[in-house]
């Protein structure tokens, strides 16, 4: 049982042209359905107008019912960083260079110095290293790096006026948005 409902101007405009007896029947049918969820049988012109109005009334009733249900607790949209995974990723990133030692933490904090550029003629990035791929794979686990890098190349090719001055920042921001859209990875 409801205390209120939505009555659209279009309902009023359609009903006001009917004779008063037909208006009364339609208003009673609308109020009965919306407030008590009772369906009243109509005939003639009232049934015609009711057939047009009913889908909106039913949709609003369903929204009302869904709004009265208990809300589920939503999971946070930001993925939580797993320290073990990051540690493993950094170790794997530097494993080939035999830097896993007391110095590895120092090296892991150093920025990657290779400059990334975009070749318009070859439609590909240049200067992306294994360090970049490893770091991005750890930082954005829900992202398919190959697919996203291809999408970036396609976007840069289609938008030549949007030349970037810092491709590393461009790629990082793109991957961050892709990670946010992908949701939480477990």
**Adjacency order of strands in the biggest sheet:** 1-2
Number of DSSP E strands? 2
Low-confidence regions: 96-107
Would you list the SSEs in sequence order as H and E?
Answer: HHHHHEEHHH
* Domains, number: 2
- Give the CA-based shape: elongated
Query: What is the residue-mean pLDDT, rounded to a whole number?
Result: 79
Short overview:
The chain is mainly alpha-helical and 186 residues long.
State the main characteristics.
2 domains; two-stranded antiparallel ribbon; 186 residues; mainly alpha; 3% strand; elongated; 58% helix
What does this structure look like?
It is a single chain. The chain is mainly α and 186 residues long. The protein is built from eight helices and two strands; from the N terminus they run αααααββααα. It has a two-stranded antiparallel sheet with strand order 1-2. The model is unreliable at 96-107 (pLDDT under 50).
What is the topology?
Blueprint: H1 9-15, H2 20-36, H3 45-68, H4 83-95, H5 104-109, E1 117-119, E2 124-126, H6 130-139, H7 145-158, H8 167-182
Helix pairs in contact: 2-3, 4-6, 7-8
């Amino acid at each position: 049982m409801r205390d209120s409902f939505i009555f659209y101007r279009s309902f009023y405009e359609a009903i006001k042209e009917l004779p008063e007896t037909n208006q009364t029947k339609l208003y009673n049918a609308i109020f009965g359905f919306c407030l008590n969820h009772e369906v009243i049988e109509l005939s003639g012109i009232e049934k015609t107008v009711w057939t047009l109005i009913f889908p909106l009334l039913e949709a609003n009733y369903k929204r009302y019912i869904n709004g009265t249900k208990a809300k589920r607790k939503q999971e946070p949209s930001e993925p939580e960083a797993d320290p073990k995974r990051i540690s493993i990723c950094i170790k794997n990133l530097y494993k080939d260079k035999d830097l896993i030692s007391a110095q590895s933490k120092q090296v892991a904090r150093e920025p990657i110095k290779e400059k990334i550029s975009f070749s318009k003629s070859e439609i590909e990035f240049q200067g992306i290293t294994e360090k970049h791929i490893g770091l991005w794979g750890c930082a954005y686990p829900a992202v398919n790096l190959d697919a996203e890098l291809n999408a970036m190349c396609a976007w840069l090719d289609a938008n030549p006026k949007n030349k970037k001055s810092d491709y590393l920042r461009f790629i990082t921001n793109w991957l961050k948005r892709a990670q946010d859209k992908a949701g939480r990875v477990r």
